[in-house]
Amino acid sequence: MSDRERSSVEKEARRGTPGRARTPQEKPRQDALGRYLAAVATAASERSDAEEPETAPGTAHPGPPRAASAPGTSEEEPAALRVRDVMQVPAVAVPGDMPFVDVAHTLAREQVGSVPVVDAADHVIGVVSESDLLAKAAVMAEPRRHGAVGRLWQHRLYEKGHGDTAATLMTFPPVTVHPAERVADAAWTAARARLKRLPVTDYHGRIVGVVTRRDLLRALIRDDAEIRAEVESLVGRHLLDPRAVGITVENGVVTVTGRVDRAVVSELVASLRDIDDVVGVVDDTEAV
């Protein structure tokens, strides 16, 4: 991952951080998002220089991904999670000729912020979102704006605001992923394009599912209970009496308490920091 790309990811993360004080409900979400971005950055940095250039946000998926390495090769781990392992099927999609009002009803009924738009052969031709519908609603509410700002505003919304169907309101070309892609690569695509939902298409561009940022998040990082289980297993290998220490895990941060030999604790803490998805270790132990 280049310094420029890392800086871009960090800037996007700061933009998404609320300017007001976080509520108790917001902090876990922000912590999880931070862990997600860290996982995406790690996945991106591990990419081989021989891979094809990434698709820029707002462009269509370039086509079938490279074939996975044969079993026994070291290029890629055979057990890597794929999009097909986490995607949602069947995917909700709307036809290009669906009227504006019906698209709005579909988004409300499915409780989603966007849906793929497909043609008669189920090829994904675009994505229509709440933002697209808001442009239509804004023009309907006030079709004419006066002054320089009003003209600029109207110019930007003209294409979407005067559409009446999913095809005329949608954003295109769509950003899509393939079922055989690694979850880490799909997460990088979603992060760069700033999308919460990605249509999943086959080699011919036909929709086969949808994968959300939450699906990718759950696949990329383990929850605290899973991390705690590995921590307790590791503690059991370092200490003769694992009950001598207390372990808590919250949002990926491991806290160790108890009375333990200082030399043993130092080695234990170093090992805990190497566990995947552990974002920090707090040593609250007392030396004996």
TrEMBL record:
The Basic and acidic residues compositionally biased stretches are 1-15, 23-32
The segment(s) forming the CBS domain are 87-149, 170-226
What top-level branch of life does the organism fall under? Bacteria
Identify the keywords attached in UniProt to this record, alphabetized.
CBS domain
**Pfam families, from UniProt?**
CBS (PF00571)
Where is the segment annotated Disordered? Answer: 1-77
Xref: InterPro entries: CBS_dom, CBS_dom_sf, Diverse_CBS-Domain
Any idea what this protein is called? CBS domain-containing protein
Organism whose genome encodes this protein: Streptomyces heilongjiangensis
Lineage per the UniProt record: Bacteria, Bacillati, Actinomycetota, Actinomycetes, Kitasatosporales
